[in-house]
Amino acid sequence: MLCSLPVTALYADNLKQPPKLIVQITVDALRGDLLNRYRHNFGPNGFNYLINNGVYYKNAHYHHGNTETIVGHASLATGAPPSVHGMVGNIWFDDSQSRIVYNIEDANYNLLTQGAGVNKKTEIDSTQAAAKSQGRSPSNIRVSTFSDEVVMASAGIGKAFAVSVKDRGAVALAGHSGKAFWFDKATGTFVTSDYYYETYPNWVTAWNKQQLPAKYSGTVWQPSIKNDSFTLKDLQQKSKLDLAGFGSQFPHPYGKKEDKYFTTKLTLSPAGDELTADFAKTLLVKEDLGQDNITDFLSVSFSSNDYVIHVFGPSSQEAEDNLVRLDSTLAEFFKQLDSQVGLENTLIVLSADHGAPESADYAHSLGIDHASYFAIDTLINDDIKATVKKRFGLADKVFRTYAHPYVYLDKDYIASKNVKLADVQTFVAELIRKQQGVYAAYAETDILRNQVTPSRIARLVSNNHFEGRSGDIYIVLNERGYVNDFDGLTVSSTHGSVWQHDTHVPIIFAGYGIKQQAIYRAVTPYDIAPTLALSANTTIPSGATGQGLVEVLQK
C-alpha cells in the first residue's frame, strides 16, 4: 500500500517551498501576560492578526539570569543562552582594558554619519554612555545567528536586515552577515557603521532627508484610548518619571525639535516605534525583500515599550496606550507585507527580549509590601571591605566594580598577595548573601565547577556565565527588589532579574500557512532560531540549544 502512494503525497512537507521572507518582530520588554491583558483594546489586524491566525506559545521563558536587552536579543538571534553566545549583559568589565565596556562597541568601525553617536550629556541609558567608542559591530557575539545562516545558505543571495531604535536591538539580529540600522538621537536619523557599508544606500539618505522626527515638534502624546476604556486604574503615580518636562501623566509634550531631549522623548513614546516601522517599510520596498524563492530575513525590534515601562511602569496608562498604538503600527506594517510579498509567503514570528516587573508603588498599593528599590552602593559596604581585609589582608581595591548582575574582583591584585582567587570569591559571595535585599550570591568558582545547589535560579545563573566576561560573584536580588537607577534617574521599573516576570515572554508564529493554536507547554525563545532555520532549510545557528517547534514545522 505504501508503494502505491504518489511521491508528492509522501514528501509534500519536504517539497514545500521555504518562505520568501521571514520577519522577526521583537517588542522590547513585552512581558508574557501583557498581550492578553490589553487585547480587548487592539484592532483586528495587528497583534490580533497574529493571535487569531498563528501558533501562540503562552508559556515561554528565558533560561538565563540577566534578562537585559542585549542578552535577550542575542539569544533570539542565536537560539542560545549567554553562556554560549557571550553577551552576558548590556555592559561588562573587560580585564584587558581595565574598564566597563558596552556590549557592541567596536573602535574598529565608525558610524557613517558625522556627528552621530551617544551624547553623554543627554543619554539616559547609562549602559550606552559607558562606551568609549561610537563604533558598533557584532564582533562580540561568539556564535552564528539565524541571519548569518540565511546569507550563508544562499552564498549571499539571501538578504538579511535588522532595524531598531536601539543599536543593540539591531546589531544582534543582523548578526555578522546582515545589515543593521538604528535610530541615532544626536542626529534624529537612522544610522549604521562601516562594518556594514562604506556609504549609505541612496534610499537611506533619502529617508533621512525627509526629517520625519521633526513632524512631532510642538505636538503632544495624547492617549488614543478613552479614559473609561483603560484596562486598569493608574495606581503608580509616585514612581513615574518626569523627564525634562515630558510630564508624569497625559498629555506628554514632545517639545520643539531644537530641544536637547526632543529625540529622547520620541523614544519614550509611540513615536519611536512609528519611525522604526516607517523606516522598515521603506527598507522592505527598496531592498526588494521577498521577491524571489531565496528566503530573505528582516528583523524589526520595537524599543518604545521598554522605555515607556521604565519611565511609567508596565501597568500604567502610558504602557497600555503605547501598545495600542503599536498595534495600529503593526497592522499597517502587515498590510505592506501582504501587498509586497503576501502573508502566505511570509513567516512572521513575534517575541520579546525580556519581561518587566511592576513598579514598587503599584505593588505597594495592592498590599505587596516587600517590593522595593535597591541601593546598589549597599552591596559592597565598609563592613564587607573590613571583613575581607581582616580575613585575607586585601585592601579595598580588591573590589573592581559592579556591573549588573556581577561583582568584579581584581584578580591580578589577589594573585600578587598569594591568595587563592576561589577562596576570595566564595568568602565574598557568602558575605553578600547575608546583606538585606539579597536572595542569593554565586561565586564564579562554584559555577565553573558545577558546585551550585541545583535549582531553577542556579541553572539560570550558570547559563549566564561566559568566562572572561562574567564577574566573580553573581548577585540575585530578592523578588520584586531591583536597582532602579537610570544614570542617576529614578525610574518606575527595571528588568534584569531571574524572576518569572522578567523571563516570561510571548512567542507567536503566523503567516506561511500556519494554523491557529494556543500552546501551553513550556518552551523557550531559544527555540525560535532553530525553528526559523528548519523552516528556511538553512543550517541551524552554530551554538543553538533550542529545539524546532513542531506546531510551526508540521503544517
Name some characteristics of this structure.
metal ion binding; signal; Alkaline_phosphatase_prok; 4-stranded antiparallel beta sheet; 23 helices; single chain; Gyrase A, domain 2; metal-binding; Alkaline Phosphatase, subunit A; 9-stranded mixed beta sheet; alkaline phosphatase activity
Polypeptide structure, described:
With 555 residues, the protein is of the alpha/beta class. The chain folds into two domains: 19-364 and 498-553, Alkaline Phosphatase, subunit A (3-Layer(aba) Sandwich), CATH 3.40.720.10; 372-479, 2-Layer Sandwich (Gyrase A, domain 2). Helices cover 33% and strands 16% of the residues. It contains 23 helices and 21 strands. A nine-stranded mixed beta sheet has the order 7-6-5-10-1-11-20-2-21, sandwiched between helices. A four-stranded antiparallel beta sheet has the order 13-14-16-15. Helix 5 (69-78) packs parallel to helix 9 and helix 12 packs parallel to helix 14 (317-340). The longest helix is centred in the middle third of the chain and has 24 residues, at 317-340. The chain starts with 6 loop residues before the first helix and ends with a helix.
